[in-house]
Structure formats: C-alpha cells, structure tokens
Amino acid sequence: MRQQRTYTELSAEVGVPADGGVLPGFLDLPAEPGGVVLFAHGSGSSRFSRRNRYVAEMLRSGGIGTLLFDLLSADEQRVDERTAEHRFDIPLLTRRLVQAIDWTRGDPRTAALPIGLFGASTGAAAALGAAAARPREVQAVVSRGGRPDLAVDVLGDVRQPTLFIVGALDDTVLDLNRRAAARMPVTPRIEVVGGATHLFEETGKLELVAMLARDWFMAHLKVEVTR
Predict the structure, then answer these.
(1) DSSP bridge pairs for 143
(2) Contact between 116 and 221 (Cβ < 8 Å)
(3) For the chain, what is the total number of helices (H) and then of strands (E)?
(4) Tens of pLDDT along 139-198?
(5) CB atoms closer than 10 angstroms to residue 66
(6) pTM (two decimals)
(7) Is 218 helix (H, G, I), strand (E, B) or coil?
(8) What are phi and psi for residue 122, nearest 5 degrees?
(9) Are 163 and 139 contacting, i.e. CB atoms less than 8 angstroms apart?
C-alpha cells in the first residue's frame, strides 16, 4: 500500500519522456492533493487549451492536482496543423498518455497519488485506451464531449468509474457516447448538459462541466495509506 505523505503546493513546468521526445507540460499540485488528473486534449489542441485549463483550475479548487501536457512533439504538431493526420491517431495519443501515466507514477512528486484521466473530444478515446492499458494505476475517467467510439476495440477492458459529459445539442456525439457506453462492462454515467453544444461555449456550461468533473474525481480517487 502507498505511504501517506505531506505535500507543499507546487506549480512547475515539466517534461514528460515519450517516444516522440520530451513533451512539455504543466504540473500543479495543491498543498494536500487527493490525486492527480492527467489531461488528454482534443483535436488540434495542446497544454494551453483554454477549456482544459479552466477545468484544471476547478479540479485544484477541489484539492486535486493536474498535469496538462502536449501529446504531440513540436514537429508532430507542425505536421498536424497542416495535415490533421495525428489528431485522429488514437493509438499514438493513447501511447503518449500511457507514457505520461508511467512518468507520473515514477516521479516522487506524484508517485503516491491516485491517478485520474480527463479526455476531451478525440482525447477521450486516448483516455479510455490508457485506462484499459493501465487498470491498476488509473482509478477514474471523465470525458468531455468525447469520442469514445474511436476506442471501440478497448471499451470492453475499461472497468474504472467513467463519466461521459455531453451537450444536449451535440446530437451525433451524444448518440456515439450512448452506443459506446452499451459496450462497456461497467456502465458509465452519462451527464447530458442542457442547452450545450459540442464545445460548451454557452454561458455557464463549461463551469458545469468542470464542477461535474471535480465532483467525479473527488468521489472516485482514493488515496491508499498504511495503518
């Protein structure tokens, strides 16, 4: 079992070792973190994603640390901006997220913390794939406007508590989430946000997404301690 320890508040730029090189990221830990959530951003986005940074701030208000990092190297990002060929490469994005999980588990600042995954859009498929690949390390998953259908081959292996958050006006994605949920051995909770479209740009909708994610991780990330 993991040893309980005392943390001081931390905000640091980090480098996550990956097969594409060292991927830059932001690691932020509150003084007594109840866990750490790794973010898998969506199509064409990065660690600077305004929406994910907003959600990360809400998580930290609930005592949960966050790691926002680039899933693509600088060269891959430049190629993707021209061709969009990497943003839908779910095996690549999943592999990078798994490498970030392994780094998080090995870094002394986060080694003892339970891990959650937050995926947006195509990043949700990577989050589900990584949860299936690291079932002992990952305790909970949240998807925002996600594409779990892109992880169809691994849905049957995801057993962590999972929350799908979808806008009520995002009809196609909502249907895809419901179909994906039916394939999973532990049925995810689906929160349909009324009046919201795919990016939750309507007034108050992203705040609701962030609150739902915060509450989910606070409920499902459990710190193991010795007695």
Answers:
(1) 119, 164
(2) yes
(3) 6, 8
(4) 999 999 999 999 999 999 999 999 999 999 999 999 999 999 999 999 999 999 999 999
(5) 27
(6) 0.92
(7) helix
(8) -65, -25
(9) no
Question: Which 3 state secondary structure label does DSSP give 199?
Answer: coil
Q: Which residue is associated with the tokens 């990956």?
A: 18
pLDDT in tens, 18-27: 997 899 999 9
What are the residue ranges of helices labelled H in 64-167?
Answer: 74-83, 90-106, 122-133
Q: How many CB atoms lie within 10 A of CB 225?
A: 11
Length of the chain: 227
Adjacent-strand bridge partners of 25: 14, 69
- The tokens for 217 are 């991780």
Residue 19 in 3-state DSSP?
coil
pLDDT computed for residue 79 by the predictor:
86
SS3 content of the chain, % helix, strand, coil (to 5): 35, 25, 40
